[in-house]
Amino acid sequence: MRASKGIPMYPRPSRVFSGTRFKQLRKERGIKGSVISRRTGIPECTLSAWVQGHNKPTIEKLVLVADILGVTVEDFLVPNEEVAPRADVA
């Protein structure tokens, strides 16, 4: 891979965080975003942004949420092809 304008190119990961999967896991366990927010200190608007794909969680925050939901961090990951790219990102 060739870098352009001094930006290194990295291979795309095969699995990535999915906001849809996060929402599904939360609903399956009957845990509201407000509960996760209260127990982790992560604002509800941040959790919502994860679901909507506006941003991604750090690994540290994902570990906190996984612990509350009783899942592993890997449970939030899906094949890269399943996550639609954001339209506002070039």
Structure, explained:
The protein has a two-stranded antiparallel ribbon. The protein starts with 14 loop residues before the first strand and ends in an 11-residue tail after the last strand. Helix content is 42%, strand content 7%. It is mainly alpha-helical and 90 residues long. α1 (19-28) packs across α3.
Spatial order of strands in the largest sheet: 1-2
Task: Give the strand content.
Answer: 5-15%
Order of helices and strands: EHHHHE
Question: What structural category characterises the helix and strand content?
Answer: mainly alpha
Weakly predicted, low-confidence segments: none
Distance between the ends: 18 Å
Task: Summarize the structure in short.
By secondary structure, this protein is mostly helical. It has helices at 19-28, 33-40, 44-52, 59-69; strands spanning 15-17, 77-79.
Which helices and strands appear, and what pairs or packs with what?
Layout: E1 15-17, H1 19-28, H2 33-40, H3 44-52, H4 59-69, E2 77-79
Antiparallel strand pairs: 1-2
Helix pairs in contact: 1-3
Essential attributes:
90 residues; two-stranded antiparallel sheet
